[in-house]
């Protein structure tokens, strides 16, 4: 949990993010250009930029998280079957999982199917309102000589600004 600073130009999509966060009482701050420059001087933002700061946001490395999940799953007696297309999941006692390679029976099944979870959930009689979205994580190298400005204590937003939900991006 290191906080997330979402910098974008002043578009309707930014207002949608602020509105959604406000609607669900998720702590956040809506920062205009002058606020970004004061609190995060290491970022070169244009006069048309704004930001949404989520103090509870963070970064999860998917590869590390998956490896940890798989390790714990195996330690607790789970069995992994990689590179098998799951064709269906049938509830029951035992539950049956039909794949491209075999049919498995288990007392319980964990569905971790990413964007295909809705398909399997509906087969099980569950109506989940899931909408897969594509998220593109990006990483940048720090320019030589700029390391000090990017130290963790410089990136933390310690100065609190009043958070006022807006209906219009100015």
From TrEMBL:
Pfam families: DAO
Keywords: FAD, Flavoprotein, Oxidoreductase
The organism of origin for this protein: Plakobranchus ocellatus
Gene3D superfamilies (alphabetical): D-Amino Acid Oxidase, subunit A, domain 2, FAD/NAD(P)-binding domain
GO biological process, any: L-lysine catabolic process to acetyl-CoA via L-pipecolate
Domain of life: Eukaryota
GO cellular component annotations of the record: peroxisome
Full protein name: Peroxisomal sarcosine oxidase
UniProt keyword Oxidoreductase present: yes
Region (Disordered): 150-170
Family membership: Belongs to the MSOX/MTOX family.
Cofactor: FAD
PANTHER family given in the database record: PEROXISOMAL SARCOSINE OXIDASE (PTHR10961:SF46)
UniProt GO MF annotations: flavin adenine dinucleotide binding; L-pipecolate oxidase activity; sarcosine oxidase activity
Residue ranges annotated for the FAD dependent oxidoreductase domain, each copy included: 2-149
Taxonomic placement: Eukaryota, Metazoa, Spiralia, Lophotrochozoa, Mollusca
């Amino acid at each position: 949990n290191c906080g997330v600073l979402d910098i974008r130009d002043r578009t309707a999509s930014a207002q949608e993010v602020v509105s959604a966060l406000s609607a669900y009482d998720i702590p956040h701050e809506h920062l205009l250009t002058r606020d970004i420059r004061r609190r995060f001087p290491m970022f070169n933002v244009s006069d048309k930029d704004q930001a949404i700061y989520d103090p509870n946001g963070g970064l999860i490395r998917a590869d590390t998280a998956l490896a940890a999940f798989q390790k714990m799953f195996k330690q607790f007696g789970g069995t992994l079957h990689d590179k098998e297309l799951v064709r269906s999941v049938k509830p029951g006692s035992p539950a049956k999982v039909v794949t491209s390679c075999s049919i498995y029976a288990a007392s319980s099944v964990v569905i971790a199917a990413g964007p295909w979870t809705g398909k399997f959930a509906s087969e099980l009689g569950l109506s989940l309102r899931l909408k897969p979205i594509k998220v593109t994580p990006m990483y940048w190298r720090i320019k030589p000589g700029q390391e000090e400005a990017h130290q963790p204590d410089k990136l933390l937003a310690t100065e609190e600004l009043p958070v006022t939900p807006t209906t219009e991006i100015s």
